[in-house]
Amino acid sequence: MLIGAVWQPHDPDAIDLSLRFAPPSLDHWLGTDQLGRDVLARLMIGGWRTVAVLGCVAAIGMVGGTVFGVAAAMLEGWRGALILRAGEMFIVVPTLVVALTAAAVFGLNPVTAGVAMGLAGIGPYTLFAHALARRLLAEPFVQAARAMGVGGSGLVVRHVVPNMAPVLFAHIGANAGLAVTAYAALAFLGLGADPSRPDWGAMLFEYRMFLFDHPLLMVWPGLAIAMVSATLNAVFDAH
């Protein structure tokens, strides 16, 4: 997906009506659409835009939520409770509603969608990371490390985070797949979207009218969404 940011086999916006609905060939591997545009090139552009969304979601929601959750477990008392209450506030409004609102106000692009979904995801990640960290802090090997004088960041880096990682990665993989489908849903709805940008969801919306005559136009972006979601789950589960 990343290669789509710097290279495509054809100009994704080049219109050639003489090639409209061309079948897959050596020149156009996935064929062309109703305007003669190369489908593979448009999929590649949509791919790197999806990667940008995932980057924002990971940096804000996954990393931020994990940091807050571990901090709440380490601090305990009123400070830990305050962090958890703040995290719970982000759970009240569903992620897609936050993203829809941001898209309607600021326009839909990978940054606004990623930031909105990342902020909405901080709460669930905070509570999940807090539960994992609390369980680990009660384990005998962590208690032994504390008795030997290991505390603060040393305890977190050496004992808590490494043992949280397998479960946390599996959870992140499932939610990264959800972020892919959520962004596709936003692009499909088209709130504030730039129709010239070939996001996978926007392609599904545009090509829906040709579902029965040229079904492959719907198959390619749908398959891309499914494959990326499944790959993210498989990769993170493997860790």
TrEMBL record:
PROSITE patterns referenced in this protein's UniProt entry, alphabetically: ABC_TM1
Superkingdom classification of source: Bacteria
Keywords linked to the UniProt accession: Cell membrane, Membrane, Peptide transport, Protein transport, Transmembrane, Transmembrane helix, Transport
Matches recorded under CDD domains: TM_PBP2
Keyword Disulfide bond belongs to the record: no
One protein family per Pfam: BPD_transp_1
Keyword Lyase: no
Family: Belongs to the binding-protein-dependent transport system permease family.
Identification of the protein by name: ABC transporter permease
Organism ancestry: Bacteria, Pseudomonadati, Pseudomonadota, Alphaproteobacteria, Hyphomicrobiales
